[in-house]
């Protein structure tokens, strides 16, 4: 610790020895520094504050009709992207700074300078945003802030306009595509209905019920035919004079009748095929068995009819004439019933074919209708979405969804905000004092002298036997006194000069 104190004392003595050099350096540094601070250009700054009111009554009213834009997020994004390069270049054009830039390098310099000096702040709690800018030209400062404020307001209103227009354009393209699909689907349904008009299901028409009714009607007609043939055979038997033989009914299988045998064989084969598919209680099986029984009975009646009568005059009796008339009527009725059975059989076959094709036709028609309905639903949804997108775009750009209130408009600054000359003057004085002391200390180190016996002993390593005190003469004392007074006057003048430049700075501000 004593060594540190000794070194400090030695340094102070060295500075004191070359104090005039230090004072000269102080004056030189202070004068140059104060002159540089004095010639610094004034810096003007202006600030604009704007309040964004995002609480609008339109938002809850239109919440269920369209997509309400998030205006808080929209304004926040715009405030963060306000200092983008395109916006800064737009500001340069708005304040005519681009006129002063003759080369691309100067233009880039202007853009960089603006981006560095513009300050944007905001509070998310109260939605208050501040825009500030500083420059040597007060009018330029105001114009730049006003331009930024204009871009901020316009950008907030138009932030979603472009997106809404793109969305509407995309939806319009989809609507046109679905219109073409709808026209194609409508033409397909129309052509299919024209092609299968008689097979398409109609209201109140059931092919299953129609087929059952047709089968019943056909069976009834066949039964009526059998009854008519049986009646005709009975009349013919009476006309032939045949009388039934009691207890000796002939076996139908033993009677030779090729026409009826072929029909019975065909019915038996049809019965065998029906038995493979249905039960005994099925109406077709019951009617077929009944028809076979009637044909077998008819064989018996025909066999009896072929028997001749022993009475040769029976062909001339009035009864025989009546029987012949009745027989002709019965033949006519049988022929009419046969024609009806054939027609009903043809209709039944046609209806059966249609009933087999109807499910496929219905399936194809349902598929076409389903595709058409899907396209129609999507088309109607797109129409609604387009209207909602247009409403959303109009809502994004309306002045009612959010309002801007300028709290502090940009004004033309009358007093400069910088540079801080009092602080710079003080800093120059401190630097000058330190520079003078450092220069004096440097000279003392370059031209060392031994100012104490301790320093001499440390430097030479020899023992100091004693010291001789300086005996100052009167002239030397006066000179030392003048030297101290001059040194004090130099320091006092330096401090007075500092006070003068500080007063000048305060008056200028």
TrEMBL record:
UniProt cross-references to Pfam families, sorted A to Z: Wzz
InterPro entries: Bact_polysacc_biosynth/exp, LPS_length_determ_N, XrtA_polysacc_chain
Cell inner membrane is among the record's keywords: no
Transmembrane segments: 20-39, 423-443, 485-507
Membrane topology: Multi-pass membrane protein
Compartments where located: Cell membrane
Main location as per UniProt: membrane
Coiled-coil blocks: 168-238
Keywords: Cell membrane, Coiled coil, Membrane, Transmembrane, Transmembrane helix
Domain Polysaccharide chain length determinant N-terminal: 12-93
Protein name (Swiss-Prot/TrEMBL): Wzz/FepE/Etk N-terminal domain-containing protein
